[in-house]
Amino acid sequence: MRTSFIIFILGAWGTVAYAQDTAYVSRDKTTALFFNSTVKMISRSTPDLDVDQKENTLITIKAFTTVFSPACIDVQEVSTAKIYHIPVEFSCGRAGRRIEVNGAPMPVRAIKTAGFNYSAVINKLAEGKRRDVIDHEKTGGVKAWVDKLSLAGNRIFFRLDVRNKSNLPYEIDFVRFYIRDLKTVARMATHEQEIVPLITTLHKKTSIAHKREIAKIFGFHRFSLSEDQALNVELYERNGNRHIYLQITQKDLEDLKTIAPAKQQPGNASVAANKL
């Protein structure tokens, strides 16, 4: 009996399963799963979910229907053979989030395309005062700006500044990004294309106290807009209604600044990018 037990333990040694927080999805919002290293899907596809591996460390999930039973997708880490069991449920309000699987910050790859040091790009955009403001909005004593729209390699970056002048702290629940037509015909279904930032310096559950201000950087795959489209940036307050809505249009993309490549500094290959 003891020998059989030891054989069983040794056989199971190489496969360790990790339970993860629930990934909430909807038909209109894409939920993104970021991993620390290369992964692969090992679970079977389901007709209720659109699961797509965008990159080695990025998997996106979207729902095809509003009604489906709670599901689970299995993802395996290539280097360690660890298996992640990720529950998936439908939710309009909680869908569209960025989830860091295994809870650790995702490194920003400093040199990936055309010799770009994206760490240096982030530092350059984060420092100093805001400039070249694209859009701004104010509600309930909280004001936000989109500024420093830039192109570096094959990434589009911008800075999101948020200032709180109210006595009530402003806690950010999540930020949503999607491309949508500026004008829609009555009774015509509105098409939205959800996009997910590859790079962000925004921490989860960031709270802005009275008379405080933050500046966070977001980086995306290079994208384009037609004249009648806009990239919508929606900032949601946790347990509150002071939501903020901002836009980037085609004209703004035409005037974006280009950041030249910077040499990689030894020992500074990455910086921590935090989850939404």
Automatic annotation (TrEMBL):
Q: Name one Pfam family in it.
A: DUF4138
- InterPro entries registered for this protein in UniProt: Conjug_transposon_TraN
Arranged from A to Z, the UniProt key words for this protein are: Signal
Q: Where is the signal peptide?
A: 1-19
Q: What is this protein called?
A: DUF4138 domain-containing protein
Task: Provide the taxonomic classification.
Answer: Bacteria, Pseudomonadati, Bacteroidota, Sphingobacteriia, Sphingobacteriales
